[in-house]
Amino acid sequence: MSSEWPLWEIFIRGQHGLNHRHVGSLHAPDAEMAIRNARDVYTRRNEGVSIWAVKSNDIVASSPSEKGPLFEPSNSKVYRHPTFFDIPDEVGHM
Amino acid sequence: MTTRTQDPAAEPSAHRDAFVDWLQRMGDNCLILGHRASEWCGHSPALEEDIALANQALDLIGQCQFWLGLAAEVEGKGRTADQIAYLRDAGAFRNALLVERPNVDFGQTLMRQFLFDAWHMEILRKLKSSSDPRVAEIAAKAEKEVAYHLERSADLVIRLGDGSAESRARMEKALKALFPYTGELFTDDAVDQAMAAAGIAPLPSSLKAGWDSTVSAVLEEATLAHPGEVWQHKGGKRGVHSEHLGYILAEMQFLQRAYPGAVW
Prior knowledge:
The complex is a heterodimer of chains A (94) and B (264).
Chain A: E1 7-13, E2 20-27, H1 31-42, E3 50-55, H2 67-75
Antiparallel strand pairs in A: 1-2, 1-3
Chain B: H1 3-6, H2 13-38, H3 47-75, H4 81-86, H5 97-100, H6 106-127, H7 133-161, H8 165-178, H9 190-197, H10 208-221, H11 243-258
Helix pairs in contact in B: 2-3, 2-9, 3-7, 6-7, 6-8, 6-10
């Protein structure tokens, strides 16, 4: 039965004003049921205060085969990484 | 809070017996329906439904703990909620016959849940203003859970009733099979009269109109014909049960009967 239902990606926002985070996926016949199923499957232990459900088909993803052209240029330019600054202790965690 | 309701020994015994009986009705409804829902664990048609039903079973068994815990406290004989749940025989159970009906299929499971949830919501709303603050507190906590149960079961009854030919036929059959077990939820007996007189709980008959309007609206949206006035089974709330309860208890109580006092 569930194989006939579309797949949804579920994002949950935790208690502390964080961003929504991808937690997994599930099947549901429509958006309303996707939210309800997400509530039952992913927030059973007080994980969240907000749920987003996105149809998996609607997600546009980068292709793994383009990993080189997409990501390597940034990796090889060490001057783009802010590792040359001394951060004063008073700033704390950044 | 008056000291009278706080100290079990000071309570008139007739009132106390009625109160304990009534608390067991509330607790046993939750316990038996929770057990029925838990029977689907690992067997549901979809993982998502499986987890949803297991959640609901846990909600109901949690509520049962509160009701039977209070029953034990009011009774004042040193029993615990667990002892009341696991060491009574069928004749001492006070749940309505509706909740012990077999699961059969998903249609009957959901219809039973919906008919019960609609009643549950009505009574919990009223119990929030119970003269006994302990009852009011349990009701306030349970109401939030049951609001979700009702939202979910009503939605699924609508989707399946107004769904495919197959799902519709199953929901029609479920409604016909279960409706004759709903009348008992609204009959008043001496225990109910005593609770109403003490302001602890509403008369069951006073909940009928609210339940009717929820059920009628959902059935209409589900395009299912309301069964109307049909003959009603009775007996559960005074301990006269169907053969199904014995099988539930055999499974539920086995461990405590075979290994008395066993703990995790």
